[in-house]
Amino acid sequence: YVVTATTTGVITPALLNLTTTNAAPVVSDNTFVVADTTAVNTIIGAVSASDLNGQSLSYAITAGNGDNLFAIDGSGQITQIGALNAAHQSAHTLPVAVSDGLTSSTERLDIYVNCVASPVVSNDSDSDASSLRWMISNACDGSTVTFADDYTIYLNSNIAINKTLTLDGSGHTIIVSGDSNNDGSRNVQPFKIGSSGVVTISQMSMVSGTTTTRGGAIHNSGTLTLDNVTISDNVGTQGGGGVYNIGALTVNQSLIEGNTSNGSGGGLLTHNTLTIYGSTIRDNAGTLGGGFNA
Questions:
Q1: CB–CB of 111/82 below 8 Å?
Q2: Are 100 and 56 in contact (CB under 8 A)?
Q3: Where are the alpha helices (DSSP H) in the chain?
Q4: Distance in angstroms (rounded) separating the CA atoms of residues 288 and 217
Q5: Residue 200: which of 128, 130, 275, 251 has the closest Cα?
Q6: Measured between alpha carbons, how far is 60 from 118 in angstroms, rounded to an integer?
């Protein structure tokens, strides 16, 4: 480049050296679940990547594909090209390099066969891959869902659980909120445990939930254990401001406070088996049984 500058009437040519910087592609961690009965040559998803400079991208699986079970094309599309066997290998971790021709980025691609055996929540979104909702839906029956970090999760609808599952927030601060937009209003009931659900929720908080029926934070029809949890600031219009139980409920070392109902059981309403150990139920409001009603 040549720049002409005028100084005190004198025109002086000057040489300006410009150095351009090429930004590396931006690649997201990608997670997929595929059945082991999926036919060979089925497309199972695509790697999410972008380039700030608008350059064309190329994709390559750099490791973890020794059995040649997967292929990736020029658009980042992943195809299963070999038969999967969950008994042989239930999860495949594939580093994927994305290049714009000058620089590259590598992120991991996780492919689970049938279900996720060791589910770890790694973001606070409502429904993205590796969110709480996604992991609960795709977790193997009998598994334990853990968390990679501290999260406050604002739900857009309740999460239904109809399997044997443990949600373990130990080591982190995990808050599940029914205030969908984080604007101070209650919008949804966080959890609904179905009759086939055998669920333990440990070291988590369920807050700001609401329902026009029963169970502002949790409606339980299955077998539920609440271990060292906090249930607060929820509303169940017809009963059970915090929790409504028609299954089998155990509450251990937990706090149920500040929940409200226009019906029975401001904190907790049970119509079936209830066992409480070392827990605190306080400052709840209901028309019959502010703390709990059975």
A1: no
A2: yes
A3: 132-138
A4: 19
A5: 251
A6: 26
Q: In what order do the strands lie in the sheet with 280-282?
A: 151-154, 174-177, 205-207, 230-232, 255-257, 280-282
In the three-class reduction of DSSP (H, G, I as helix; E, B as strand; rest coil), residue 133 is classed as: helix
Q: For residue 227, which amino acid is it?
A: D
User: Tens of pLDDT along 156-177?
Assistant: 999 999 999 999 999 999 999 9
Q: Is 71 exposed, middle or buried (0-12, 13-18, 19+ CB in 10 A)?
A: middle
Query: Residue 28 corresponds to which tokens in the numbers above?
Result: 């997201």
**Distance between CA 72 and CA 107 in Å, rounded?**
14
Q: What is the DSSP letter of 264?
A: B
Chain segment 177-222, per-residue pLDDT in tens: 999 999 999 999 999 999 999 999 999 999 999 999 999 999 999 9
pTM of the predicted model as reported, rounded to 2 decimal places: 0.84
Per the rule left: phi > 0, alpha: psi between -120 and 50, beta: everything else, 169 is alpha
Residue with tokens 């334990």: 144
d(CA 202, CA 56): 46
CB 57 within 8 A of CB 76: yes
Token digits of residue 31: 């997670």
Residues 175, 167 contacting (CB under 8 angstroms): no
260 within 8 A of 284, measured Cβ to Cβ: yes
Question: What is the C-alpha to C-alpha distance for residues 54 and 49, in angstroms, rounded to an integer?
Answer: 11
